[in-house]
């Protein structure tokens, strides 16, 4: 492999979105019986909201706005009506997610050899806030808002080699989601699968391996060991 840069899916791969969102739901909506269930419901609206943009049924819209719209719909369905200040604070839960225990150490080691950055559907402000809070040592912030394409649109993956002046195979895509890696491979990127069995709190068990990835690992530190 001649990999020069590594780009990372973020939600579920670098950070634990479920626990972080549930924590903020419990803090801001104390009457909700099961904060994790609400977090799961909110996350379940993630792909459908982006599909409206991917399909061009609506113009380009950043993830913070899509998250707010999904939240408003979710709260209405549940008969909840918190004030606007609480709703805005809940949207910022996605900016304050904790990294998986291996993430910062692994990224720091990988950064010594590779250019590293997120390849996320998150908007730039979200990703920068998250990185500052969690200590994620990115060299560059890439992803949907930069490319103006939501994964798995080809344009999202094509943007990384174009912006970094590399051939597609010189960019490694790191993700905990096989469908993300399938789409990246279709654009010529080298792929690395990270098994994150706790992403969905045991509700969904991800595959143990991606046999078509260059490597399957259980942590970023293991990826750093192998690379």
From TrEMBL:
Q: Which UniProt keywords apply?
A: Hydrolase
Coiled-coil zones: none
Keyword Hydrolase in record: yes
Tagged with keyword Hydrolase: yes
**Pfam families named in the record:** Hydrolase
Which InterPro entries does the record match to this protein?
2-HAD, HAD-like_sf, HAD-SF_hydro_IA, HAD_sf, PGP-like_dom2, S-2-haloacid_dehalogenase
Q: Which family does it belong to?
A: Belongs to the HAD-like hydrolase superfamily. S-2-haloalkanoic acid dehalogenase family.
Q: Which NCBIfam families match?
A: HAD-SF-IA-v2 (TIGR01493), HAD_type_II (TIGR01428)
The identity of this protein, by name, is Haloacid dehalogenase type II
Q: Which organism is it from?
A: Pseudonocardia benzenivorans
